[in-house]
Amino acid sequence: MDDDMVFDPSLKKKKKKKTGFDMDAALAEQGESASMEAPVETGDVDVPEDDNLDLDNFGKKKKKKKKTFFNLEEIENALPETPPIEEPEPQEVEDIDDLDLDIDFSKTKKKKKKKNNLDEHVVEDDVKGEDQENVEDMHGDWVGSDRDYTYDELLERVFDIMREKNPSMVAGKKQKFIMRPPQVVRIGTKKTSFANFTEICKTLHRQPKHLLDFLLAELGTSGSVDGNSQLIIKGRFQQKQIENVLRRYIKEYVTCHTCRSPDTILQKDTRLFFLQCETCGSRCSVASIKSGFQAVTGKRAAIRAKTA
Amino acid sequence: MSIQNLNTFDPFADAIKSSEDDVQDGLVHVRIQQRSGRKTLTTVQGLSSEYDLKKIVRACKKEFACNGTVVEHPEYGEVLQLQGDQRENICQWLTKSGLVKPDQLKVHGF
Ligand SMILES: [Zn+2]
């Protein structure tokens, strides 16, 4: 901290960099959130989405860091002649609160850099491979120098190592959850086809019968699987509606209620279904599927004729 | 072993029998069914038989400006039927009037 106080010019730079950094972070976030939502939509329950959010943050951190380096360079190039460049940018960005953590990290990093020779560092960073950027950068900052490392630096270091050693922690889980959206097409005016029903059962590792029972009970209608392994449902339904029901199905019958892992087995045991988790080993009973009360909606005359 | 325990004789079976499923899981199921065209029907199953469903349906009809009726079902007891998708409305109304706690409501459908 003392060092920083000495270098007045560097402080100024810091501020500018911060704003530039924010800009990019925001852009990165926008880009990511847009791209993320598309694949997750389908089958994902709320639960995994939470996971994804966390994962996103991890991803963001990385990206931001990468971008900061580019930014540093740009800004340094820009600094001598055009300091006001950053002025218009910060407004768009400052609203973002949830990035505080990251920003803090970047601040500390930047301070370090300023102590050393700025230009050198930037060049170095550019040369380094993208993935290793963070780690090496961390090491480079305090390993060589006499000063003590800070808590933030250590924290970041441990996270970097974790990410490096278990790429599956960040990406693997998410990929498991990516599911094709249900293909829902209207057949005539009164029926709906859920074309990839069997395929979705396979991705979820569930018996078609089980999912079928759930869908029909929830939608309060009837239907069956036809020769082309598509599900024909009575009534008009949109893809979004089917997706909603699927999401609830996955939440209740696919993902573990304890650890949210989708790696589970559904077992029937004395008329109760149990969800056995392969990841954490938990086993819990799940709600049985009941269609419950069904109101008479068809033509009463026809029903009367049938029963009479 | 635990399974065997489940199979033991339940001395209170008779007492629960009257409104079996609903009271047993203690939930009020709000469902939607499609009728012809864009028309839908909302059903409310599992309301306690201590309530006067006829009074409830009268209040709901007025409140939501829809028609409704009470249907007697051998297994599920008295069931409320309302025209249209009244799931949001009925859930709010039931919780606001204190008849059902929010965590007892189970909304089905799309
Ligand atoms: Zn688990």
TrEMBL record, chain A:
Residues 174-283 form the Translation initiation factor IF2/IF5 domain. Residues 43-54 have a biased composition (Acidic residues). InterPro entries: IF2/IF5 (IPR045196), Transl_init_fac_IF2/IF5_dom (IPR002735), Transl_init_fac_IF2/IF5_N (IPR016189), Transl_init_fac_IF2/IF5_Zn-bd (IPR016190). Pfam families: eIF-5_eIF-2B. Keywords: Initiation factor, Protein biosynthesis. GO terms for molecular function: mRNA binding; translation initiation factor activity; translation initiation factor binding. One of its GO terms (biological process) is formation of translation preinitiation complex. Residues 1-58 are annotated as: Disordered. GO terms for cellular component: eukaryotic translation initiation factor 2 complex. Belongs to the eIF-2-beta/eIF-5 family. This is Eukaryotic translation initiation factor 2 subunit 2. It comes from Galleria mellonella (Greater wax moth).
TrEMBL record, chain B:
The keyword Transferase does not apply. GO terms for molecular function: translation initiation factor activity. InterPro entries: SUI1, SUI1_dom_sf, SUI1_euk. One of its GO terms (biological process) is regulation of translation. The keyword Protein biosynthesis applies. It holds the Pfam family SUI1. PROSITE patterns: SUI1. Signal peptide: none annotated. Keywords: Initiation factor, Protein biosynthesis, Translation regulation. Residues 28-98 form the SUI1 domain. Belongs to the SUI1 family. Probably involved in translation. This is Eukaryotic translation initiation factor eIF1. The lineage of its organism: Eukaryota, Metazoa, Ecdysozoa, Arthropoda, Hexapoda. The gene is Sui1.
